[in-house]
Amino acid sequence: MSEEISAIILSESEQTLSLLSSYGAEFGKYNFLNEFDDLSDVFNTLSSLQKSLLVVDLPQDDAKYLEFIQNVASSCPNCKILAISDTPSVDLIVRAMRAGAKDFLSAPVIKSEFFETLERIYSKLSANKSAETKSRVLTVFSNKGGIGKTSIASNLALELAKITKENVALVDLNFQLGDITSFLDVKPSFNISYMLQNPAKLNPEFLLNTVEKYKDTSLYIIADPPYFKQADKISKNQVVTLVEALKRSFSYIVIDTDSTFDEKTVAALDNSDLIFLPVIVNLPALRNCQRILDLFDKLGYEREKTQVVVNRYMENDEIKIKDVEKVLEKEVYWKIPNNYFTLMSAINKGVSVSEINPESNVAVSYKEFAMSVSDMVYRNKLIKKYSTSKVDSIDNVLRG
User: Fold this and answer.
1) Fold adopted by 5-131
2) Does the pLDDT at position 190 exceed 90?
3) Do the beta carbons of residue 200 and residue 282 sit within 8 Å?
4) Which end of the chain lies in a sparser environment, N or C, as judged by fewer CB atoms within 10 Å?
5) Phi, psi (5° rounding) for residue 164?
6) 3-state DSSP call for residue 90?
7) pLDDT category, 396, cuts 50, 70, 90?
8) Are 105 and 113 in contact (CB under 8 A)?
9) Strand ranges across the sheet with 252-257
């Protein structure tokens, strides 16, 4: 006999509630619960269940329900959340997924699509696995020093942890001159060399107990080896092994690489979902950036995999952003403003720019940068998921 999983439908529409309940009863495999006094009652019920399904019909005024989804997602890891809306704008879908919804359907719900989604969710819940993490690997690379690579990696990773509330790993793969521990003023008990010496132990429990947690955030730091000889013993295969192990525990993995094209750096680049290429606006840096893009083309990387980030941007620069894009033949993904005093104060005190002055232009930029990156991840998922003609309009908006 198959396992019956508890499910709850939230909708302000009696018609939608009745229809979905009817579909649920016909599908089977779920025990749809009802008769709740308020959202607090629903939350308490979900918290008491080992595994469950929550279906949320998002109204026009969706703020309360999105907050509820976020609370459930963070407190009930084995509760799968399906969001539904009769106005499925790209912005709403992204916000729902960022809050914690793992599936999204347009209303009025088509029975076959609802059944297909219920079956997929049931398979995941009945597999007796903990909540899955679809991890994304983001690498910040430059073969030129002084561009701000480590600063970008550190601040981006911390803001991702704050915004998503998910576990984020910040990995220092600059084995010779790593600076992440200095930038964030941490003294980890263990480093990447220790972890790679114990490959059999690279499970989620070992990783979360070994890596250094940054203050009261969900950011975890994996430091570079303290001695050069330790770095020499690390192979490209070990780098790949570590990245694969981290994917089981972290939603985002931000890698700060070495500035050389050695086999370990290339292994990290090969296994990245996105590569951020920092550049400052001067001709030598732009020519260098152009050469890297050409090399990435030869390595077979898709153009969308690499995104250009202009660091220390000033609007009155002699070279304008349009000039940068013309030279690189590529759009600039993000501009981080030049704020020397805030940035140097952060570096000297070993904290992020947001901890120095959260209202500064550079801190706001990093926060919006991280939000854009998390949105990009969700949007890429949506493009793959909603690529069929039945939601062609959504797909067109995403690609536009």
Assistant:
1) Rossmann fold (3.40.50)
2) no
3) no
4) N
5) -85, -20
6) helix
7) very low
8) yes
9) 212-213, 219-222, 168-173, 252-257, 136-140, 274-279, 306-313, 332-337
Q: C-alpha dihedral over 300, 384, 129, 210, to 10 degrees?
A: 40
Number of H helices, E strands in the chain: 18, 13
Cα 81 to Cα 84: distance, rounded to the nearest angstrom: 10
3-state class percentages of the chain: helix first, strand second, coil last, to nearest 5: 50, 20, 30
Do residues 52 and 46 lie in contact, with contact meaning Cβ atoms separated by under 8 Å? yes
CB atoms within 10 A of CB 209: 10
- Mean pLDDT in the chain? 85
Q: Tokens 């941007």 sit at which residue?
A: 313
Say if CB 118 and CB 26 are below 8 A apart.
Answer: no
Residues 6+ apart with CB under 8 A from 170: 153, 154, 157, 158, 180, 214, 219, 220, 221, 222, 254, 256
Q: 136-384 architecture in CATH?
A: 3-Layer(aba) Sandwich (3.40)
Q: Which of 32-41, 216-225, 320-329 has the highest mean pLDDT?
A: 320-329
> What is this structure's pTM?
0.67
Give yes or no for a contact between 74 and 100, defined as CB atoms under 8 angstroms apart: yes
Lookup: tokens for 364: 């706001």
Phi and psi torsions of 313, nearest 5° = -75, 135
Which candidate, 140, 217, 159, places its Cα nearest to that of 375? 159
Cα-only R_g, the chain: 23
Residue 263 is predicted with a pLDDT of 85
Nearest CA among 288, 343, 293 for reference residue 313: 343
Q: Is 256 in contact with 171 (CB distance < 8 Å)?
A: yes
User: What band does 312 get if pLDDT is binned at 50, 70 and 90?
Assistant: very high
The Cα-based distances of 285 to 77, 88, 310, 333 in angstroms read 45, 42, 10, 17
The ranges assigned to domains in the chain are 5-131, 136-384
What does the pLDDT look like over 330-347, one tens digit per residue?
999 999 999 999 999 999
- Is-same-fold flag (5-131; 136-384)? yes
Six-digit token string for 319 = 């070279």
Provide the percentage of residues in the chain whose pLDDT is more than 90. Answer: 41
Decide if 163 contacts 354 (C-beta within 8 A): no
- Picking from 124, 74, 127, the residue whose alpha carbon sits closest to that of residue 99 is 74
